[in-house]
Design brief:
Elements (H helix, E strand, L loop, with lengths): L1 E10 L2 E10 L4 E5 L6 H9 L6 E6 L2 E2 L10 E4 L11 H11 L4 H15 L14 H13 L5 E5 L7 H17 L3 E5 L3 H7 L2 E6 L2 E4 L1
Parallel strand pairs: 3-8, 3-9, 6-7, 7-8
Antiparallel strand pairs: 1-2, 1-4, 4-5, 9-10
Length: about 210
């Protein structure tokens, strides 16, 4: 479960107050709203990347409000993928495992498993600078899933793709949803994404969240 309780967040002149929502365990939650309304700010707060002024972030049965991002067990895919350009795809996917002190053999096996799930085995030796937009998104999703997180946060993962690549990634996200037990917060502007993937749809409007 991902739950926010009365979050208050201030970023410069922008602020949100009393933001509350719940995504039940192993459900795929879609957060929608106009550009600039604060969707990414909320997602970053859940991940621990944005400081909140008051309120709580509950993950499962735990109050994770004061937890470091690494302690939250969240796989995060930012809108720009943020892949490390000096690392191969293999090294990018393995990065969260290295941070968590996995042994080399175990990390390599896990990278191979994730690459197989996502169909990107042939990309493992390549640099991110030589990947298409869809390939970058798959690599970023692989990195987010590598350490088997309980929670997944996706910031508009399909927004930069053309229609053909978008459909391919749709299919992959549907596969992930069916095959991996992970509670997901997914930001999008797309009603199609919401209808195809969302178990619960949250609308952020005028500083308030309503479930659709």
């Amino acid at each position: 479960m991902i739950r926010s309780e009365n979050l208050c967040i201030k970023c410069g002149n922008f602020s949100l107050s009393n933001i509350s929502f719940t995504i039940p365990e192993n459900k795929w939650g879609i957060l929608m709203g106009k550009s600039g309304c604060g969707k990414t700010t909320i997602l970053e707060s859940v991940c621990g990347l944005r400081k909140i002024r008051t309120g709580k972030i509950i993950l499962g049965d735990t109050d994770a409000t004061g937890f470091h991002p690494l302690e939250r067990n969240i796989g995060y895919v930012p809108q720009d993928t943020a892949l490390f350009p000096t690392m191969t795809v293999f090294e990018n996917i393995a990065f969260p495992l290295r941070v968590r002190k996995w042994k080399n053999d175990a990390a390599a096996a896990r990278v191979g498993e994730i690459a197989g799930l996502l169909g990107i085995e042939k990309l493992l030796g390549r640099s991110p600078v030589n990947l298409s937009g869809g390939e970058k998104q798959l690599a970023a999703i692989g990195r987010a899933l590598a350490f088997s997180p309980k929670y997944l946060c996706l910031d508009e993962p399909l927004s930069s793709l053309d229609e053909d690549r978008k459909e391919d990634l749709f299919v992959m996200l549907e596969k992930i949803k069916k095959s991996i037990n992970v509670t997901t917060l997914h930001i999008t502007h797309s009603q199609t994404e919401a209808e195809r993937l969302g178990d619960i749809i949250l609308i952020l409007k005028d500083g308030k969240i309503d479930a659709k």
